[in-house]
Amino acid sequence: MRKLIVAAFISLDSVIQSPGGPEEDTSGEFRLGGWIVPYADEIGQAVQDLFSQPFELLLGRRTYDIFAAYWPRVPADSHSRAIADLFNNVPKHVATHRSDTLDWQNSHALEGNLGDAIRALKHQDGAHLLTQGSGDMVRQLLAAGLVDELRLMIFPIVLGHGKRLFGDNAQASAFTLAHSISTPGGVLITRYVHSGDVRTGTFEER
Question: Residue 13 phi/psi, 5° resolution?
Fold first, then answer.
């Protein structure tokens, strides 16, 4: 069974909204878009490493529309061309009610209930499923207990408000820290692997 990996740029207060640019997602009057840009040189290798293994993209509709408007149009001489080629060619599974508008090549709509559709995908042969952005969808996946790994790049900033990675309905789960490094500017690059249920206890038992 293949894994579902959630990859996210995230602030110290769990905000994931509009990391790449001011106009990426301004909903809720969010005005701090582009907050990862000052750290771009520090995280470049980590981003390349994330995409170095075979993967298929799992995207919510808003993120899909943002990506579909950008990646197919990346110039041939752009420093982002290698990632653009990857994103353009890999299968893309999209949570959407408008399947007839998926114009980006190799895009497929998820049918029916999201949790059931993801479970079916995970049982198919193929590369691991990798999310990018897609906060609304990821919160549903966390609530359903479908996430196998978290690949978080944690930035040393507090944004105060904005869409957050974790909702109040996330399924209680334990994760093991499998990898962690920090950049000179203080970005933590981490990999957490799902390891079962949350354990509890009391100090009186120790």
Answer: -100, 25
List strands edge to edge, sheet with 188-196.
107-109, 92-95, 55-60, 128-132, 4-11, 149-155, 188-196, 174-182
Residue appearing with tokens 């209680």 = 172
Decide the pairing of beta strands 188-196 and 149-155: antiparallel
- Report field, pTM of the whole predicted structure over 0.85: yes
- Rounded to whole angstroms, the maximal C-alpha distance in the chain is 64
Per-10-residue mean pLDDT, the chain, length 206 = 96 95 91 95 90 94 92 89 92 88 93 93 95 91 96 97 93 97 96 96 82
Q: Is 111 helix (H, G, I), strand (E, B) or coil?
A: coil
Least Cα distance to 34 among 146, 195, 162, 172 occurs for 162
Cα 57 to Cα 160: distance, rounded to the nearest angstrom: 29
